[in-house]
Specification:
By secondary structure, the chain is mostly helical. It is built from 11 helices and no strands. It has a domain of about 150 residues: Tetracycline Repressor, domain 2.
Length: about 220
């Protein structure tokens, strides 16, 4: 009696766009954007590429959906009736933490400025600046300054982390950089020598939020005119 060959394992649950996006995020987090292919997705989901194309048109759409999914989760918890300033800070921190956990998002956000995730952040910031009473002529510039700072700094922080192996100790790295700054020509780099100790001791998230406070303080000056 012949033994039947085992069939390739196939998913028994219905494939959905949501599951495809979740699988894409898993690949992006583990291996980066270069590893995200429809073949890799098919292998992870135990299905063929054709079934995936039924839900997602191409890789660009998949990246857009994955980015929106994470950003939406990061800022959905910001309650509408929260004080506007607190709401802006919560959005900023949510985006910072999301990009820190998923570094590929920083690249994706800068690549597609008009994508839904960026619009979601921009609307969240802008609507709260309106609630703060920022004059209409200053609204666009104020919201843009915050958006560019949030996405730019969070993305750069994530990029810096990718430059160094996971086993690199952050404190040791900052200590090395600070020591390098201290050895610079004092006449040519007086500022860097003065803040070298602060570099060594700073916390990225705290520094990021300090920048948000500075921008909001400037916006408050404009609002009060």
């Amino acid at each position: 009696m012949k033994t039947k060959k085992p069939r390739n394992e196939r998913r028994t649950d219905a494939l959905s766009k949501k599951r495809i996006v979740e699988a894409a995020i898993e690949i992006l987090d583990a291996e980066g954007e270069h590893a995200l292919t429809f073949r890799a997705l098919g292998a992870r989901l135990s299905t063929g590429s054709g079934a995936i194309y039924w839900h997602i048109g191409d890789k660009k759409e998949l990246l857009t959906e994955a980015t929106y999914d994470i950003i939406a989760q990061a800022i959905t918890g910001v309650v509408r009736d929260t004080e506007p300033r607190d709401g802006i800070c919560a959005i900023a921190l949510g985006v910072f933490d999301a990009i820190d956990r998923h570094p590929w998002i920083g690249t994706q956000l800068s690549r597609e400025p008009a994508q839904p995730a960026m619009l979601r952040i921009f609307e969240g910031i802008g609507s709260r600046l309106q609630a703060l009473g920022v004059p209409e002529p200053a609204l666009f510039n104020a919201a843009s300054a915050l958006l560019n700072y949030i996405v730019g700094v969070a993305g750069q922080n994530a990029a810096n982390a990718r430059l160094h192996p996971r086993e690199t100790d952050r404190s040791d790295f900052l200590q090395t950089v600070a020591a390098t700054w201290m050895q610079l020509d004092a006449a040519e780099y007086p500022f860097l020598q003065k803040v070298a100790a602060q570099l060594q001791e700073h916390d990225d998230q705290e520094q990021f939020m300090a920048g948000i406070d500075l921008i909001l303080a400037g916006i408050e000056v404009v609002r009060s005119r």
